[in-house]
Amino acid sequence: MKKCTMNNSLLSFRPVFSATIVFAVALLVFLFFVYKELQRKQKFLALRIAALSLLMISLMGLLLRPFYHQEKKYEAIVLLTKGYQSGKVDSIAQKNPELKILRTKDAAPYSNSSILKSWYDLREEKISVVVGQGLPNHALELLRHKTFQFIPSALPKGITKLIIPKNIYVNTQDQIQGTFNDAEKTKIKLIGPGGAEDSITLGSGEASFSLTFTPKQSGKFIYSLVTENDNASSERLPIEVLRERQLRILFIQKFPTAEVRFLKNFLEEKNHKVILRYQTSKGNFSYEYSNTTRVKIDGLHSNLLNSLDLLIVDQKSYVELSSFEKKELRKSIRAGLGIIFLLNDTKEKTLNEFVHIKARSDSKDTAHLHLSHDYALPVLPIERQNDASMISVTKNNNRVLSGYFFSGQGKIGLQFTQETYRLGMAGNPDDYSSLWVTLIGNTARTEESNFKLKLATPFPYYLNEPIDIAVGSSGLMPSLSSDSVGISLKENTSVEDYWTGRSWADKSGWHQLRIEQDSSQLNYFVSDTSEWKSLRITNQMKQNSFFQHGSSSENKIEMQSIPASKLIFYLVFLFSSAFLWLAPKI
Questions:
Q1: Are 127 and 77 a contacting pair, CB within 8 Å?
Q2: For the chain, N or C: smaller number of CB within 10 Å?
Q3: Against a cut of 0.85, is the pTM above it?
Q4: What range does the domain containing 287 cover?
C-alpha cells in the first residue's frame, strides 16, 4: 500500500493508510460513539466523552505514525586504517582541532586517536573521512551514513589487478591478465601442473601483463604466479578446466577446400557432431557426416538451425541462399545460434547486414603469428582497429586476426587468417588448435540453463569472510546450497528473477555452489589470509572509492527524525477503554 508523508512545523506523519481517510473515518466513528453516550443518560458524561476522544487519538496515533524533528550535532570523525599517511592526517587535523580521530586495530598509532574496538561500533558513528587502505566490504555495510571522503594510501607493491577467464576449456589457449606494481623490474612466471607455461618481464611502476597457457586436462588445478625480483614471491592461482563441449556443427561450402577439409577432420577427432554440405552442381549437393546420423538438408529452416550449435559458411554459399533462408538465419542468430563466416572476398558487400568490413589498400596481406613457433600466414587485407563491438580472439599487435561479436543472444565469428591448415600439416596441432578452438567455443550457442550463478565478491576469497552470490533465474525460485549447506536467497526488488545470497567458508581450498533444481554448479577456491595481499588491498580501496563524496571534516548539525513512542498510544488506549468499561458500574 502506498505510504505518504505529511509535514508541518511541529509534527510529521507516515500514515499506514491515507491520512484523509484516517481522519474521516475517525471523525465518523467518534461522532457515532458520542451519540450513543448521549443516549445512555449515565453519569460522568463529560469524562466519558473525554475518554472517547483520547481513545480515538490513540488509534489515530497508531495509524498516522507521527514523528518530530530534533537537531543533533554530529562529530566529524576521521577513521585511520592500515597504511594511512600521517602527513595527510596532520593537514586535516590542523583545519579542525576538535576533530575526533579513530583508528582500526591494525593501523599505526596516531596522537589523540582512539581505537575502534569493533566494526559494529561504526553503526553509532558518522564517519566523515577514511584514510589509508579503507574498510572491508562487510564493515562498509554497517555504516549508517554511506558517504565519506576517502583518502587512499599508496598503491601496494605486487599484483594489483587480476583477470581470470570465466570458462577455461581443455586444449584451448587462454590468458591470465593483470597489473603489477613495483619500483623495479620484475619477471612474472605462470607455473602449471606440467611446469612453466609462460613468463614476462615488466618495467618499474604499474605495468600490465598477459600470460598464455593451454591446459591439457580437465579438472581443478592450482597454478602459481611467481614473481622474481628482490622480493620474490609465489601466489596460488586456482584454475578450473572444463571439458570440451560436444557441439553440433554444420558446414555450408560452395566447393571443397583444404581449409575446411582440415578443420572438419580436426573437429571430428574431438568428437563433435559435424555435417558438411558442399555443392557438386547446380541444385545438387554432397554430404559428409561425422559422429552423427545422416540427414538430408534441403534448406536452412528454423527447425534445422535451432538444432545446431554452430554454422560455418563461406561467403559464396551465403550469397546463394534464398531470401527466406537468410531471414530464418538472422532470426536463429538472434535467438542464440552461433555462426562463423569464412571470408575470402573483401569486395563482397552481402555480409554488410551482419558486419561492415572494408578492404584497405594499405593493409598488409601477411601476418606474423608468435605461437610455439613463428608463422607467416596470409590474411585478408582488412583491419578492424578500436572496434568496441568486436571481441578479439587472435591478434597481431593491434590488428585483429579473428574475433566475434554479439547479435541478439547469438554470436557472429570472423576468421581473417587464411591457410591455417598449414600449421597442422607442419605437425603443430596445438598451434592450429589455438587459432580455432577458442573462436569456435566462444561463438557457438551458449548452453541453456534455467539459472546463472556468479560470485559478486571479487577474487580472492578468504576464511570466515562473507562471499556474496548472485543468481539469475528464468522465472523460478532457486534453491542454492554451498557444500551441501543451504543458503537463503532474497529477490531483488528492482530486478525481477535476480536473487542474492551470502556464504562463509570455514576452511581453505575448493568449495562448490549448487542449484538443486537443475544441478547447475560453480566451484570456487578459498585462499589463505597470507595470500594475494596486494590484490585484496587494491580491491578494498576501489570499493571505498565508490562511497567517495566531498564531505567536510567539520562538525555538523543535522535534523533527526524521532518517531513518537507507540507505547504511549497503547497505554492511552488501554486506560481510556478501561474507564469506558468501568464508568457505568460506578
A1: yes
A2: N
A3: no
A4: 248-443
Decide if 273 contacts 246 (C-beta within 8 A): yes
SS3 call for 300: coil
155, 131 Cβ separation under 8 angstroms:
no
DSSP 3-state assignment of 438? helix
**Residue 553 domain-assigned (yes or no):** no
For residues 172 and 214, the answer to whether their CB atoms sit within 8 Å is yes
* C-beta of residue 127 within 8 angstroms of C-beta of residue 143: yes
Looking at 190, 216, 242, which one is the last position of a domain?
A: 242
Over residues 144-157, the pLDDT tens digits come to 777 888 999 999 99
Only one residue has cell 453516550, namely 37
Q: What separation, in Å, do the N-terminal and C-terminal C-alpha atoms of the chain show?
A: 44
Mark whether 356 and 439 lie in a shared domain.
yes
Number of structural domains found in the chain: 5
- Measured at the CA of 168, the angle between CA 164 and CA 169, to 5 degrees, comes to 165
For residue 196, count other CB atoms closer than 10 A to its CB. 12
- C-alpha atoms less than 13 angstroms from C-alpha of 574 in its C-beta half-sphere: 6
The β-bridge partners of 70 are 560
Q: Are residues 238 and 191 in contact, defined by beta-carbon separation less than 8 angstroms?
A: no
The residues near 357 (Cβ < 8 Å, ≥ 6 apart) are: 343, 346, 351, 382, 384, 414
pLDDT of residue 2: 38
Query: Would 545 be classed as within a structural domain?
Result: no
Does residue 492 lie in a domain region?
Answer: yes
Check whether residue 517 and residue 486 sit in a common domain: yes
Question: Are 255 and 398 within one domain?
Answer: yes
Using the 3D structure, point to which of 242, 258, 278 is the last residue of a domain.
242
> Based on the domain organization, do 415 and 302 belong to the same domain?
yes
Identify whether the C-beta of residue 13 lies closer than 8 Å to the C-beta of residue 5: yes
Q: In this predicted model, what pLDDT tens digit does every residue of 314-368 receive, in sequence order?
A: 888 888 889 999 999 999 999 999 999 988 766 656 666 676 666 555 555 788 8
| Residue 404 forms part of a structural domain | yes
DSSP characters for 312-380? EEEHHHHHTS-HHHHHHHHHHHHTT-EEEEE---TT--GGGGT----B-TTS-SEEEEESSSEEEEEB-
Asked if 138 and 208 sit in the same domain, the reply is: no
Whether omega before 460 lies within 30 degrees of 0, making that bond cis, reads yes
Which of 389, 272, 412 is closest to 339 using CA atoms? 412
Confidence check: pLDDT of 372 > 50: yes
